[in-house]
Design brief:
Layout lengths: L18 H19 L6 E10 L2 H13 L8 E13 L2 E11 L4 H11 L8 E6 L6
Antiparallel strand pairs: 1-3, 1-4, 2-3
């Protein structure tokens, strides 16, 4: 392995390296403001429920029952149910509910209350809950 000599600093003035990052931040400012206004992370909280089952109509019906059982709260917006982006995986049909809330709202407590009173899955229907999901697939 050959030793390398000391690295040479750039020939640019000290402040120019940050210029592209600053420009990017300025360009992204409207997108960040829109995320904040819509309560999307990091300015809000999201949770996803994925309901899956072998029978599409039974799975969809359970997802609709879950949505109707959601506690009413002005701080939470429940979206769905809708088919998940990957609607069929390994023979299981998937439907999703998405919940949005402000950052300071205890979304986990809301979900616990909801699921305690909600109809339970029957047969081969499964329910998965993901608070602050990293992906929606």
């Amino acid at each position: 392995m050959r030793a390398r000599g000391p690295r040479r600093s750039s020939q640019r003035p000290a402040g120019t390296a940050a210029a592209p990052e600053s420009r990017t931040a300025r360009e992204n400012a409207p997108l960040i403001a829109a995320r904040e206004a819509a309560h999307y992370p990091p300015f809000g909280r999201l949770a996803a429920m994925v309901i899956s089952g072998d029978d599409k109509s039974a799975t969809q019906a359970h997802a609709q029952r879950l949505a109707r059982a959601a506690p009413q709260d002005d701080c939470v917006r429940v979206l769905g149910p809708a088919e998940a982006p990957l609607a069929l995986i390994r023979g299981r049909h998937r439907f999703r509910l998405l919940m949005k809330s402000p950052r300071n709202f205890d979304l986990s407590a809301y979900l616990r209350e909801w699921l305690a009173a909600a109809p339970k899955p029957k047969g081969k229907i499964r329910l998965e809950v993901d608070v602050d999901p990293q992906s929606f697939l």
